[in-house]
């Protein structure tokens, strides 16, 4: 079921300058709980989901919510990415499958296969040929989440991680050699997710953050100079909504981070690739009460 706003709550879409930290309110709604902003490839629009649908919003805030025709795709969640050429949006639907939808209109195409997993899309390779997703499956009564890839044109799935640790947020880096994700694999107790990356063949995995906070959804900058991510308070289980002291952070190649924003939010704030094409801004959603 799509999320809805609580009484007295609003959804606020911001862009923030990663150099100065200055933020700007793009739009606000007290009716539609929208989530997960992508940027259009020309930098003129942001794309968000809400109520199982997809919308386009001008970065300057004019024009309101322009609904994108999904061509009969089942209601979608907050995991969607754009193709590098800007012609296609790939979405995760509530039926558990991935779909390719032409942004200019036309019939959607189901990308994913039936292989016992529920698909949550997070990334696309720089050349647009491959999608990275989280496959959620029931295994001996446990819900297991691992990193997978699949050709964007359709084809055989490739599983990159295979363990009982909760993985999420699988997103390609700009060189196409690594897939970044968050995982509980560094801890024996839930509520300690950190950031990792794995080579695209799954043979090498490296941990990137080591602090006491709970770190989710790594988004590498277009030039590889930093990784933006969502940081929850210590001990947070999963990536819940409506959490105080959620922070947007930037991680540099030396492993140092800096705070970019603090907000009330969490789920839906920045689940998908959220960098502007020029790498100067990030987009995120806050949900103040």
Helix count equals 0
Give the total of domains. Answer: 1
Strand content: over 45%
User: N-to-C SSE series?
Assistant: EEEEEEEEEEEEEEEEEEEEEEE
- Global Rg: 17 Å
- Lateral strand order in the biggest sheet: 3-4-5-6
CATH secondary-structure class: Mainly Beta
Family: Belongs to the TolB family.
Organism: Kribbella amoyensis
Protein name: WD40 repeat protein
Pfam families: PD40
Give a brief description.
This protein has 289 residues and is an all-beta fold. The chain is 0% helix and 49% strand.
Helix and strand topology:
Elements: E1 11-17, E2 23-29, E3 34-39, E4 45-50, E5 53-58, E6 66-68, E7 76-82, E8 88-93, E9 98-102, E10 109-110, E11 118-124, E12 130-139, E13 142-151, E14 158-159, E15 167-172, E16 178-183, E17 194-199, E18 205-207, E19 214-220, E20 227-232, E21 243-251, E22 257-265, E23 281-286
Antiparallel strand pairs: 1-2, 1-23, 3-4, 4-5, 5-6, 7-8, 8-9, 9-10, 11-12, 12-13, 13-14, 15-16, 16-17, 17-18, 19-20, 20-21, 21-22
């Amino acid at each position: 079921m799509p999320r809805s706003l609580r009484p007295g709550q609003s959804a606020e879409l911001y862009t923030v300058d990663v150099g100065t930290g200055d933020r700007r309110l793009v739009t606000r709604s007290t009716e539609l709980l929208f989530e997960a902003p992508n940027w259009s490839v020309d930098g003129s629009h942001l794309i968000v989901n809400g109520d199982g649908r997809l919308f386009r919003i001008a970065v300057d805030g004019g024009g309101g919510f322009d609904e994108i025709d999904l061509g009969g795709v089942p209601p979608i969640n907050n995991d969607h990415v754009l193709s590098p050429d800007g012609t296609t949006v790939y979405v995760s639907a509530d039926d558990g499958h991935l779909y390719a939808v032409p942004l200019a209109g036309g019939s959607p195409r189901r990308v994913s296969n039936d292989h016992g997993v529920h698909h949550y899309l997070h990334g696309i390779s720089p050349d647009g040929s491959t999608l990275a997703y989280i496959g959620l499956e029931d295994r001996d009564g446990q819900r297991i989440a691992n990193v997978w890839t699949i050709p964007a044109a359709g084809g055989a799935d490739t599983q990159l991680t295979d363990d009982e640790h909760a993985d999420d947020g699988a997103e390609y880096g700009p060189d196409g050699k690594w897939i970044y994700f968050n995982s509980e694999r560094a801890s024996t107790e839930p509520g300690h997710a950190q950031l990792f990356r794995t080579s695209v063949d799954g043979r090498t995995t490296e941990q990137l953050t080591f602090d006491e906070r709970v770190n989710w959804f790594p988004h590498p900058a277009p030039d590889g100079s930093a990784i933006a991510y969502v940081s929850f308070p210590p001990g947070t289980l999963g990536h819940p909504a409506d959490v105080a002291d959620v922070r947007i952070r930037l991680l540099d190649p030396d492993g140092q981070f800096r705070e970019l924003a603090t907000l009330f939010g969490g789920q839906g704030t920045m689940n998908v690739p959220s960098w502007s094409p020029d790498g100067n801004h990030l987009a995120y959603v806050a949900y103040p009460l």
